[in-house]
Each structure stands twice: as structure tokens, then as C-alpha cells.
Task: structure prediction
Amino acid sequence: MADQTAPAESTPEIPAALITAPGYQVRRLYQAYLAVWAREVDRVLTGPQFAVLQAVEANPGRDQRSMAAAVTLDTSTMADVARRLENRGLLARRTAAADGRRKLLYLTDAGREALRESNDRARMLDKILLETFDETERAPFVAALQALADHWEGLAEG
Result:
């Protein structure tokens, strides 16, 4: 009996049930985004590090827990990201006077510089990611993504 398996170099057909599943398409988008981010921006900061520094720049002196919520990181991941940024000299974590358990976050000068460099690259990446849309389509597309994310987060919270 001859071997009926497909050659190793061929890619299997994607089942229709996956193609029509929004979650599958979102996962594809996210995997592709991570790969492009790593190539275009990650020389200085990972995506979560970038998000944390952006949030701290916009809200200096806020506590680590509220910053985690702002950038949709769980508290243990946030603690790890903040610790790594602090070890690199990009972030200062100070203990709150009123509650020794709370860590307040501040950008350092080096953090501002890293954020500036990464922000320039991230904005270029945004343009690349949205280049298939004309100028009038971009804002509504991003608004639709935000509405979808808000809805799905609501579903996740139960």
C-alpha cells in the first residue's frame, strides 16, 4: 500500500470553520503583529514595556496596580515588566508614603529617551499596518477594533 500522506512541504488547507471564526482571525492578526513589532520596534522595548512606559508618561506617580489595569496586564506580569524596566534604568518605582505595599511609577530620563525612540518606530509601524486603508478608512477601522475589543473584554469579565 502506497503512503497517502501529503508531502511535508505543503501547507494543509485551513478548515472553513476556522476561516469564518473571528477569534481565529484575531489570533492570526496578533501573531503577525508580534512578529512585525519584534522586527520594527522591539530593538528597544517589547510591546508590554512600551505600553507601560506610555501609560507612566501619561500618568506619572500612579500606582503599579492601576497602571496594570490601564495597559491590560495582570498584576504579576506588570510587576515583572516594571521590575525589568527599573533594572534597565528606564522606570523608577517608589513606595507610596501612605501605603508601603503600593509602588508608584515614574519615568527616568533614560525611560523618556527609550520611549521617544520606540514611539517613533511604533508610529511608523502603525502606518505600515494600516497602509491597505486609505486615510478616510483608518480612523473608523481603528474605532471598530476598539469597539470590538471593548465588547470582547466585557464578555471576558462575565
